[in-house]
């Protein structure tokens, strides 16, 4: 800064005028000024940042972890559904006559996950009163195939279908 007496500039006014000018400093002095400047974080600011970051982490981390764990559930459901449908198609493929009554267990491992379940084939009668199929001990015109598959953390997936008697097969009425 440079101080000039005011009367040297103008005779009308008495006082002091401060004229500011910029001078360049050598790089070493500028670097030292940056190191000793008061810019930066204080201890209180650092603690506050840590506390706020910790609170945000405590809120969002469990949500993120839950979404990662449940991200594979649709794939697990779809695989269990596929296995159940495959078992039903096997029974449909052999037909009413060759589909043996009883219960069969299934166990399949896909991508490191084990799916277990059972396939129940039984005679059923159609009730026109309540429009449903009811289990029968004797031979009827229908068999129900019910498949239940259980996988990793999904509960039970159940599918069923009705196999009608093969009328074109002469041995089907026995």
Q: Which terms would index this structure?
A:
single chain; 174 residues; alpha+beta; Pantoate--beta-alanine Ligase, Chain: A,domain 2; 2 domains; five-stranded antiparallel beta sheet; two-stranded antiparallel ribbon; 7 strands; 39% helix
Describe what you observe in this structure.
InterPro entries: N_methyl_site. The chain crosses the membrane at residues 43-65. This is Type II secretion system protein. Keywords: Membrane, Transmembrane, Transmembrane helix. The protein folds into two domains: 2-69, no CATH class; 75-173, 2-Layer Sandwich (Pantoate--beta-alanine Ligase, Chain: A,domain 2), CATH 3.30.1300. The protein has helices spanning 6-9, 27-36, 43-70, 73-98; strands spanning 2-5, 16-19, 102-110, 113-127, 132-135, 142-150, 156-164. The chain contains four helices and seven strands; from the N terminus they run βαβαααβββββ. It has 174 residues and is an alpha+beta fold. The radius of gyration is 42 Å and the shape is rod-shaped. The termini are far apart. Strands 3, 4, 5, 6 and 7 form a five-stranded antiparallel sheet that branches. A two-stranded antiparallel ribbon has the order 1-2.
Layout of helices and strands:
Blueprint: E1 2-5, H1 6-9, E2 16-19, H2 27-36, H3 43-70, H4 73-98, E3 102-110, E4 113-127, E5 132-135, E6 142-150, E7 156-164
Antiparallel strand pairs: 1-2, 3-4, 4-5, 4-6, 6-7
Transmembrane segments: 43-65
InterPro entries: N_methyl_site
Keywords: Membrane, Transmembrane, Transmembrane helix
